[in-house]
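Hey, quick one: can you model this chain's 3D structure?
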Amino acid sequence: PLAAVGPVAEAVAGGWQRSLGSAAEVDRVAALAKVAWNGLALQSVPEPLRADHGIVLAAVQQDGRALRFAAEPLKNDLEVALAAVRQHPDAFRFTAERVRGDREFGMEAVRQNPRSLQMLSESLQDDRDVVMEAVSRDGICLEFASQHLREDSDIVFEAVRQHGASLQFAAEELLDLPKIILEAMQQSLELMRFASPRFCADLECMTKAVERNGLALTYASAEVRGNKRVVQQAVKQNGLAFEAASEELRADEVLAMEAVSQEARAFRLASQAIKSNRDFVLGAIQKNEAVLKFALQKHRDDHGFLLEAMRNNGRALEFAPEEFRSDFDVAFEAVKADGSALKFASRELRADPRLVIEACKTCSTVLQAAAPSLKADRALVLEVVKLNALALQAAAEEFRNDSQVVLDAVTRDCRALSLALPKPRADPEVVLAAIRQDGLMLAFASADLRAEHSIVAEAIKQNALALRFASEQLQTDRKFPLEAMAQIGATPQDVFDMYTDVLEADRQARGALYNLARVMGDVDWAPDLGQESFARLQRLRAERPLEPLAEATLPVLTS
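Sure thing. Here's the predicted structure for all 559 residues.
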């Protein structure tokens, strides 16, 4: 503990009484020990000792706020004041006026508490380095800088970068500088209100602004809000910016379409003529299904219109009136266009096999939205996976563990094997149906089948890299690496040459032969090359092993 309070306390603890000659000296050393432990104890030491430089310095070094209890002359002492503010930023308010004009003190003060700039002398508030230090830590401190420095674009930019709201304290002539305004706007669009009229009327400046936030168009001049190029850029970024466009441009179909494509609510901002235009509304729904929610009632109640809307965008079913979500024809057109729309149909229609079967053609997760009774219907599930094999992923577990269902699925798409449960993965007929399409599907076969010679041979026949997923025992069987080589038209000599070329020349290699070598590992497939070559190969493979084939480089297909 003594080491923590410095040499003063150590001296006290070491027997200061032996070297003291008077009561005053005893009092001073006692006071030193006291404030070294607790700087704020300066408050309770005798008043004469509060004017003692050493005691006060020790106190503020322990707690800067102790400066409050120092004698007035020491509040003017630069060494004491600096020590105090370095220890505690609140100490600044107890310093005397004279030290607040000292540059070294001012720099230290703003480092500890940037807003102390407010109480520094006017000369320091006009000091570029001091002010830059302050605003880089708290941009709002720009308020306390001199008028001269509020006209400095570098100072203002740094302040705005640190705190956008400091823009309000910038000199008027800087409020049309794109660099400064755009930096502030990036933090809060509302700060655009401080931009100068000249900035808001400048086409180039406002184009840059709306590229960042389309709603900046709200602050543009009438002339800019009537400029098609600027408005188009704004609605492209945020469709709701369409509200700020001139009345003439809100009747422009190109701009209206751009706006509603980005934000469906922008449809309400279009002119009445556009909202009444049947073809326009259908086109808008094609781009953004939510537009139907804001369409005129005459369109929402029109059965023929809704049929066409669903053909354009099946997901629009979500925003159709309730009675049409129960209409078979409307729902059928929706799921025909987009099977995922099934989840927006009424409960009754989600129990209709015709709708589910149609939906599965374009959506592999359709069974998730189907009624529970259909999910448990084996005949339906079989029909669904024949149409869309990956629909197996949403089937009940009993069907994902049904070899016949899975076989029907993998016959259509080998990737369905990755969605199966253990029983079909252990069925040779199912696995063979998958690996004959893609040998790498061996990865999803059961451990027993990955150790089965005929299965692994079939997989390698389709894709040599399937060797990677064979059992450890088969990977070390010389027969299979040789079969894998033959599958890509290579010989042990080719692989040996590739090894020596790559490893001895330290070259990067690519291609099927190289990837196969990375899969083959340490299996001894090359003794027939001769004793000398075989020994050389073993040495190379031990010294410079090939990096294993990364998972991402294998085209293993999953759902």
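One thing worth noting: Confidence is low (pLDDT under 50) at residues 1-5, 11-20, 552-559.
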